[in-house]
Structures
1.
Amino acid sequence: MSATPGVRPAAHEPQAEYDGPATLVVEGAEHPVAVTLRGAFQPLDGHFHWYGRIAASATLATVRSGSSVTLRTAHGTADGKVADVDPWGRFRVSGTGRPPF
């Protein structure tokens, strides 16, 4: 099968992604944040796994690693967990199932 000139083939299994504003809800408190999120379907367990980083923000000083959170974007809402903070003060956030983007 030959490729059509000037037409690029579709990427194999494109990854979902989102970079932009979001609202992080922790224990009922809402925090406006900026996030970088990615995700992919994992055939081994049959679930979509999403993950990313929350930009450093002074409003997150009370958030603790391991906290259950809800993350909202203009595209959706999802429950997840925050984890390790990197050297730049960004939390890792992740979840399973329908992503917030």
2.
Amino acid sequence: MPDLNAILLNAFKLNDPAQLDDLRLGDIPTWDSLSHMDLILAIESAYGLRLSGDEIADLTSVSAIRTLINQKEA
């Protein structure tokens, strides 16, 4: 199973997984619209998923990302 924390840390150029807690789109300069799409591509590739436009639009927090991946893997 891919390491979601590693994907998120890499996408946002962060070092500490604790920084991911309660993180939302726009909270940090490295999570902007461009890095958001890079993150989506990384998640799709790592998990073998194809996310819809609505799903992508809903992924505005780390919590929402974790929830969607858990639902897709169930």
